[in-house]
Amino acid sequence: MKQLKHLLTERRDNVIAYGIVIIAFLIVQAMILTGNISSSLNGQLVPICAYIVMAISLNLTVGILGELSLGHAGFMSVGAFAGIVVTTSLADAIPLGPLRLAIAMVIGAVCAAIAGVIVGIPVLRLKGDYLAIVTLAFGEIIKNIINVLYIGMDEKGLHFSLLNQTFELSENGKMIINGPMGVSGVTKLSSFTAGFVLILITLFLVLNLIHSRTGRAVMAVRDNRIAAESIGIPVTRYRLLAFVISAALAGAAGTLYAMNFSTVTATKFDFNTSILILVFVVLGGLGNIWGSIIAAALLTVLPELLRSLNDYRMLIYAILLIAMMIFNNSGLKKRLLEKRAAARAAKAEAKSRKEAA
C-alpha cells in the first residue's frame, strides 16, 4: 500500500511538472501572438530552451550521480556540429525543416552519447577534482579538434580533413565546417516549439530515470559507493549509464542551439559555457530538476531585462547571483522546506485518518 501511494505521488509530481511547462509554453505563445514580447526576448527563447535542457542533463551528472563535470559544453559542441552536418547533407533529400531538425537532434544525441562512452569509460574511474580536471580537458580537446576540422560536400558526398583543407570541391560543392572559421550560412531550423518538445522529452527521460530502480541505484552509488558495491550494484555500469544519458541530452540541446544561428564557431562552446551551465545547476540546487529549469530561464533572461540600466546591469546581475547563492545555503531556505514538508506530512496523515474512518 505504501509503495502504491509513493508511486501515485511520483506520478502526480510528474504530471504537475509537465503541466507547468505546458502552461509556460502557452503563456509565451500567447505573448508572441499578441505582440507583447520584445524582439530581444523573442530571440532568446530557443537559447533558453537549450540551456534548460543542458541544465537538466548536467544535474543528472552533478546532482543525481554526484560527479563534478566541467566539460559539458564539449558534448553540446559535438551535438551542434554533428547536427549542422546532418541538416546540410539532408537539405535536398528532406526539404521539410522540422523533420530534418528532429533527425539532426537524434543523430547529434547519438554522437554525443558515443563521445560520452569514449570519455566515460576511463574518466569515471576517477572521482572528485580529478574527474573535474579530465572533463575540463575533454571540453578543450573537442574545441581544438573542431578548430582544425574541415568538412565539405559536393556530388561525390562528404569530404573530411584535419589541420588543412586537403580536398577540392566541385563547382556546386559547399564547405560545411571551415576550421577555425566554423560554419557560416546555416539555415535556421530551430523554433520555440521544437525547444518546448525537447524540454518535455528531457523531463520525461530524466524524471522517469530518477524514479526508477536504475535511478535509485545511481543515487545509492552517489551516497555510498562501498555500500552499493557490497549489495551487488554494478557501480561502473550505472555511473556510465547516467553519464552517457546526460551527454546525449546535451548533444540534442547543442543541435537545437546551433540551428538557431546563421554562424557557429567552436568558441560558442568553450569553458565559460560549461561554467555557466554549472552555475544554473548549483543555483537551482543539486538534484533539483525544477530549480535547474528556473535558474536557467531566469539567468538567461535577466541580463536582457537589465539592459536598460546600461553600465549597472552586470553589477546588479552579479549581486543577484550572490544573493541567490546566500539564500540557497541559508537556514531560511531550510526552515521553509521543513515547514513545507511538515505541512505535506500533516495533510497526508489527515487524509489517511479520514480514509480509515
Automatic annotation (TrEMBL):
Please list every transmembrane segment annotated in the UniProt record, as residue ranges: 15-33, 45-66, 72-94, 101-124, 130-151, 189-210, 275-302, 314-332
**UniProt keyword list:** Cell membrane, Membrane, Transmembrane, Transmembrane helix
In Swiss-Prot or TrEMBL terms, this protein is called Branched-chain amino acid ABC transporter permease
Q: Name one Pfam family in it.
A: BPD_transp_2
Organism for this UniProt entry: Candidatus Eisenbergiella merdipullorum
Report the locations given in the UniProt record: Cell membrane
Q: Which GO terms describe its cellular component?
A: plasma membrane
Membrane topology is: Multi-pass membrane protein
